[in-house]
Write a structure and sequence with these properties.
The chain is of the alpha/beta class. It folds into two domains: about 40-120 and about 230-275, Periplasmic binding protein-like II (D-Maltodextrin-Binding Protein, domain 2, 3-Layer(aba) Sandwich), CATH 3.40.190.10; about 125-225, Periplasmic binding protein-like II (D-Maltodextrin-Binding Protein, domain 2, 3-Layer(aba) Sandwich). It is about 35% helix and about 25% strand. The protein contains ten helices and 13 strands. Strands 2-1-3-12-4-13 form a six-stranded mixed beta sheet, with helices on both faces.
Amino acid sequence: MNKKFLSLALSLALSLSLAACGSKQEEAPAETPAETTEPVVLNVAASATPHAEILEQVVDVLAQQGIDLQIHEYGDYVVPNTAVEEGEEDANYFQHIPYLESFNEKEGTHLVSAGGIHIEPMGVYAGKTASLEELPDGAEIAIPNDPTNEGRALLLLEAQGLIKLADGAGLEATPNDIAENPKGLTFKELEAAMIPNAVEEVDLSVINVNYALEAGFDPTTDALAIEDADSPYVNIVAVKEGNENDPAILALVEALQSDAVRDFIKETYGGAVVPVF
């Protein structure tokens, strides 16, 4: 009886051991949580019109690439540059290369172009005087007071035969560089964003297209004179030097230089904003 009992006990123990092993083999391995990649946040400073509007066209395109484009609108031409220099913004989109170069020289910043997107021809708009032909002697003209845009405005007025600048004045010109002023014109130097608000206070105003559009002007029909579309003042995406080859910046520029954005610019602005790609 003892031998039989011992044999039975051994058999039972072996069965239980095999059953336990089988149970462990059948258990499903624990699932590892799926890895999630956080989107790259790209902060871009921009003028409201047309720059922020153009940037909006690529938000979804960049989102598909894992880039969260955050557009921050600014109403001036200084803070967007200092914000990029100080790292508060990753890039900005509001200025042309001559302005950027002048800003770097004056402020000691280190900004570079990551790519050109469009041109905004500057225009002359009526105020107290309805046309260039009716402009009286001693008339007052509002012009931007920032570097390069002031010279650009004076060059446009020179092209209309209203003044003549001293040789070599170029983009750095100010009213002090006017060599000939047959009508005795005077100039009201204002921050570019403020000029549309002063249109009725002066005879003529020279306005950047982005601010003209924001004020409700149609540059192609309302401007008394406008720069040629082949103007050298290409508006760019600007970044701090060293960041121009950052993958998110390259993706932004590629998206902005797409056929879809070209079509949007042409259809939306009707020649007031001209794509350069």
